[in-house]
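ok posting inputs for the zinc ion job
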Amino acid sequence: MIETITTKPFEGQKPGTSGLRKKVPVFQQPHYAENFIQSIFDALDGYGGKTLVIGGDGRYYNTEVVQTAIRMAAANGFGKVMAGRDGLLSTPAASNIIRKYKAFGGIILSASHNPGGPDGDFGIKFNAANGGPAPEGLTDAIYAKTRAITSYRIVKGPDVDLGRVGSTRVGGMTVEVIDPVADYAALMQKLFDFDAIRALIRSGFTMRFDGMGAITGPYGTAILEGLLGFPTGTVMNGIPLPDFGGHHPDPNLVHAKELCDLVLSSTGPDFGAASDGDGDRNLIIGRGMYVTPSDSLAILAANATLVPGYKDGLSGIARSMPTSAAADRVAEKLRIACYETPTGWKFFGNLLDAKLATICGEESFGTGSNHVREKDGLWAVLMWLNILARRRESVADIVQGHWQAFGRNYYSRHDYEEVDAEAANGLMAALREKLPRLKGHHGIEAADDFAYDDPVDGSRTTGQGIRLLFAGGSRIVYRLSGTGTAGATLRVYIERYEADASRHDIETQAALADLIALSRGIAEIEERTGRSAPTVIT
Ligand code: G1P
Ligand code: ZN
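and the output
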């Protein structure tokens, strides 16, 4: 029985870098999630009778919203919903399901790497038929619908049993509950040489994978321990929990400390990796060697032809603007294009669809390829394993060899979290105002507010971050986060290029010290925000 429920718009249902993200209690307000889901449907055309994929990262409130979304999809005329068992699907797995089964799109419930639980964060995003995040035009249309909504449609009835794989009906619609891991594992087996990785394991190679109490636990366990044969216990924090076991599921040196301490020690396993809340991010470390995401992108690109799925080479590389230029040097050597896009995976979609780029990456622990339209944490781990299996060198040797061949891009991101929003906006406005006068001072060769012209659809995206470009390839970039849920987060990205191999072993913060001091001075960070130091350094 379809019901039409009268509702009123909520303020601020504006999708950010990656969908709508708010605190759980905000989403728990009556009609809040329903309004947003209906607005997604209202902004779409032509989905009658088509398939919608639904799943999430298992965080607190996930199953409730999965049930709601299923009922609303039925009431709005979808023909079928494919939902992950227990309401689970990692973001890259959802992207794969959408593509593989030619679905109309998907609703993914996640706040990615943000903490979960009753007081944590929740999120809803829509992915289109190519499996990628809704483009800006669509998110703008969804936002417009949220501001004008007067009612939503929902089917009343009992909850769907999400615990069992199989088909049922809700209203006139079929609901197919699927194994969340199987299709994804099959895709990975197509791309990677599992036999070569098995041989590496037999040679005594050891690793640890940290699921961080989030969605990649089941994927990691099935693929690393199940299919590849790493010993039980290789996957730590492998059970997805509604509050991620109290962890902050962000795979970086700060939040994956236990793993990092283990692998960075001289007696640790050969290789360590972690993924985030919804499975799209990755952290890569070798014994005694942390690999920055920017370096990881460059190294994967430089070695891609060792991996069956990429043996014919790459058509191009794409990186987000704040990501270091390490990948650019690889692209230059391979004589392929390197695209510089605004922050957020949605900007890679057109490049991948048009086959202009094969591999993409962001400094924020995101790497992926044309196999799906999201970044993919476990994919990056398997890329590394496949390359290690072929090269039979340590992670540290591979990274140092890469620097010798291409030079090293020292790189760090300094985050000032939960800054007063007005102060943060004021800081950015003052920087923008200063831009024309910065050139020629402190060695700045160019300064601008990054804008991107999409080579595929011709769209222009402006205001994507202030760039200060120095002689010799150094950069300082400032932008405000689009994924936070409290106050504003100022991100400052600092990079320095060093060609001389005898200067490749300086501690990163020390190597960047001058630029770090300059980044604080030019933007008047302490005067404007009251912060004398960042909250997180990665
Ligand atoms: C952050 C990252 C960005 C990434 C996004 C989603 O966005 O910086 O690279 O695509 O999360 O994972 P931000 O908070 O900076 O807007
Ligand atoms: Zn994520």
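notes: Residues 91, 112-113, 276-278, 280-281 surround zinc ion (ligand 2) (CB under 6 Å). Residues 352 and 370 are 6 Å apart (CA to CA).
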